[in-house]
Amino acid sequence: MFSKMFDCKLFFSSRSTLPFPGSQDQYEVFIKELVWNLFGEGNDVFKEGEWTKSIEMYTEALSIAEYADSEDICVPTGLLEKLYANRAAAYLNIGLYDQALEDCEKALQLNDGNYKALYRKAKSLKELGRHQEAYEAVAKCSLAVPQVRRQTRTLYKSFIFFLNNTETPMGMAVGMPDVKGLPAAVDLAKNPLADTHEFKQACSICFVKTGPGVLDYTLHTEDHKCKKDALLGRFIHSPDKSWKLIRPRPTKTQYVGPYYICKEVAVGKECLYPGHCTFAYCQEEIDVWTLERKGFISRELLFDPFGPSSNVRLTVPKILQEHHGIFMFLCGVCFDHKPRIISKTNKDNPSLCSHPVTKHDFEDHKCLVHILKENTVRYSKIRPLTPYCQLDLCRHEVRYGCVREDECFYAHSLIELKVWMLQHELGITHENIVQEAKKFWNATAMLQGSQLSTVQRRFGPPNLKMMFVCGQCWRHGQLNEADKNKKYCTAKARHTWAKDRRVVLVSSHERKKWTTVRPLPTKKPIPSQFEICMHVTAGKKCQYIGNCTFAHSAEERDLWTYMKENNIPDMDQLYEQWLQSQKPGWGEETSSNSIRENGKQIHMPTDYAEEVAGNHCWLCGKNCNSEKQWQQHITSDKHKDRVFNSEDDQNCWQYRFPTGTFKVCERFLKGTCTEDDLCKLAHGEQELKEWMERREFLLMKLAKARKDHLIAPNDNDFGKYSFLLKDIK
Fold first, then answer.
1. Which SUPFAM superfamilies match (predicted)?
2. N or C end: fewer C-beta atoms under 10 angstroms in the chain?
3. Are the C-beta atoms of 401 and 701 separated by less than 8 Å?
4. What is the 8-class DSSP label of residue 270?
């Protein structure tokens, strides 16, 4: 029965083609949830101004509802009327008044008291020139609206105002900001660029820069031996027939938000960062980058319109080559804990997790996680692929955090989306993904090792110089190393050269000043990354009584990190290895621990094996080994700024940051305000509207941080963001 059911337009969805494995009751629940989910997604893209995409979402939901009715599955009537009414609003915004009127009639057949459908019907009739019918619809609307004044004149004026403004669909999440300038969403079932864009290959000889602007290029058609190393694109139906250069997509950051046009280029100026700008220069570039990042097109396929499907076959090595990092299993219970805890397998008992207290059954609760170690450690959970999963990114998670968390049908990170696509194509399990990742990095390590076998290496961090000197001489400002026999220092006093009398000095390329380094902290477990002492950062002397486990300089932090990554537990072993490095021929040897790729160390799975007993802040990528350290972190100004700020937030807003006073400046309206950006009041209704939207957006981020316990329960001190907690008067 179910195989037949899924043979005919499975779910009517372009995003899922997986057979449903459950019972009939589970299937009915799934169909209803899918309709609700598409309804919510339609509302979201409507709010972002993507009218055509919202129509697709509403239409897909109605198609599924129609199919469900043929299978005796009852979708709520209230949901159907909202779908018709909201699709009518979308049709109105793109000028399809006949279709809007038809949808309003269908909504009114389900509920003749639906006042939103009535006023959208009135607006459709007005635009179609049927003014008498429009007036009658307004009159009916006045009777349908609950809890309004009875004065016909006031009610009529209110509806005229409402009809002249952009519609807001029913069921919209409260406080969802109106994001401007986002690129159109992508139809994931096929490559949409084939119908809207055309592409061409060129080179620096035929595509020549003719002006100061980044878009000032001219394409020459003379015959020549073209290298075809540049991609050009343009819209098929656009009046502008000039070709635009489509640069390679920036991949140095793991950015998952929407791409934006460079602000300087948008206003006709020259880009401040030519050759390095990570913003797009044209809409064609945005469209290509968006699909490239999701893995649905490759540049080579753009030149073969009759070629294979635009879906690029994914493999685990391809994913790791683009995103780096490693896949491994962690304890799912600890990972989902608020705040997050990173627990691997217990060294003494691999069947349990490494948490010192709870010790969950690891096999029953393990979850696949992608770990990327750069300046900080970032963990991205990979949820199992189910028939509910939609192969697209969750727009809520990207911006301020999805409240549905694991119940959300959409991917919460780009790496999760890629893994889902990989599983959908190949049916690979999480266990196989982990094994493939290990094989890939082992093969990469061997390859890099063979390439570097004859390359000269140096001991210690690459940005530091290191030397061991006599401690007694150093206290008097003298630099004296050991003599040839390593028994005395080279000073006239000939101090004994012993392990308790020598100190290690390091000098960075930036400071060029010798600095002492204390022994590596013996506190267990060793943190994933070392932080600089907060007192030292503030320019003060460390106030900690005893051995401070925080680094007292950037050089000390770098050397501690080097010792940890190379399993050097103390200064004695550091000294012995340093002595070995001074011998001739040492630099020609190779070590698996020092294999590097493009100047960065290749991190093997064992490099992530540190035991983390405390809480992990996913915002900052910081592990805290004690409750005191955790409280210090979540109350710090740097962390609080991360709660409210992210990489793409600044690109979503056109006006100033809210001052906390949500009123329009009367002097600005009169043209007499002289304070400019220093004015505490909004300069116009548009700025005030954006301030209100931004406040709601920041409140969502704050709510997400509180839910994840990344903000102390009673902490209401947020600096410039404290206005969020005040009521708007």
1. beta-beta-alpha zinc fingers, CCCH zinc finger, TPR-like
2. C
3. yes
4. P
Quote the CA–CA distance of 266 and 268 in Å, as a whole number. Answer: 6
CB 414 within 8 A of CB 323: yes
Is residue 343 within 8 Å of 357, Cβ to Cβ? no
Alpha carbons 88 and 122: distance in angstroms, whole number: 12
- H or E element that contains 600: strand 600-601
Q: How far apart are CA 656 and CA 688, in angstroms?
A: 10
Give the residue extent of every domain in the chain.
2-164, 197-301, 316-340+367-448, 464-581, 636-721
Question: How far apart, in Å, are the Cα atoms of 721 and each of 179, 645, 675, 694, 726?
Answer: 20, 10, 22, 11, 10
pLDDT tens per residue across span 631-663 = 888 888 888 888 887 655 555 677 888 887 888
In terms of Cα–Cα distance, which of 626, 611, 628, 639 is closest to 717? 639
List the CATH code of the domain at 2-164: 1.25.40.10
Full DSSP string of 308-323: S-SPPPP-HHHHHHHH
Average confidence (pLDDT) over 546-556: 83
| Residue 26, token pair as written in the block | 């589970």
Annotate 210-228 with three-state secondary structure. CCCCCCCEEECCCCCCCCC
pLDDT tens per residue across span 191-222? 557 778 888 888 888 888 777 776 778 888 77
> Which DSSP state fits 543?
-
What values do phi and psi take at 699, rounded to 5?
-65, -35
Kindly report, residue by residue over 131-175, the tens digit of the pLDDT.
777 767 766 665 544 433 333 333 344 444 344 444 444 443 333
**410-411/390-393 β-pairing:** parallel
The DSSP element (H or E) to which 352 belongs, if any, is none
646 near 697, Cβ under 8 Å?
Answer: no
